[in-house]
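Team,

Forwarding the record for the chain on the shared tracking sheet. I've put the sequence and predicted structure together so nobody has to dig through attachments.
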Amino acid sequence: MSGPLVQQAPADRRRAEPAGGRRPTYPGARRRRRLPFSPWHLVLLPTAAVMLLPLVWVVITSIQRPDDALQFPPVLVPHTFHWQNYPDAWRAAPFGDWFVNSTVVAAAAVLGNLTVGALAGYAFARIRFLGRGALFIVLLATLMVPQQLLIIPTFIIVRLLGLVDTLPALALPNLVTPFSIFLFRQFFRTLPVDLEDAARIDGASRLKVLTRIVAPLSTPVLATVAVITFLWSWNDFLWPLIVISTDSHMTLQLGLSSFQGAHSTQWTLLMAGTVMTQVPVLALFFLCQRWFVQSVVLSGLK
């Protein structure tokens, strides 16, 4: 009985196939073949264009003449490119000193958040101690406090330390943030504990496990914290405005305000300086973009 059934199966399969050996196509499958990208791109592309419009306007204004930048309606395609605005903006203010100050402050903030944030995040993720849950909730609650409320007590502390109008006054409040600790803790919880247990059995300390085993596996979160901290410190304007009064100690964002006067604003020089200040930020983000996305996905952030 099994013989005829076995012989009949290929015949049934051949009858099910259409003539010419082609598989049937459905309207939905045909539409998916015609659309070479996701339908969400139809929504994301216009949104991205709207988001990029201010940046494009800044770049266009930075290569225009002062009279063309004041025209209304604005000229989106300049007739001539006035590249002289960039060297003029560089010579009109001590941009070199501002670049150095911003780089030093941002580097100190990145180094502090990577070091202290990783240590605190690992403690919250792996070490069991009394009050760990309550302390972590208090840490998350500090994220809800507006930064403007912390300016006055922070300034009082900086003044008591004698650091007003110095670069340490800019770097000290940003050496560690609750968000970096939270991000490290969320990422460390996704790593397998077996590797750490094996190292602990071999006699490794907690610090050695963190530096030799956990840190090499944490490249995504390290890059993410570095990018976020660098962006925050590099673009900070309010705190340097309060604590810095000397031109040689200004950062880039604070120094750009010197192009704005009480009665007039040098828009072309201001936009040229803005473009120059954003080049390091964009370069850093594009270099770390792959690890940035990977860390956000693995840590469960939305």
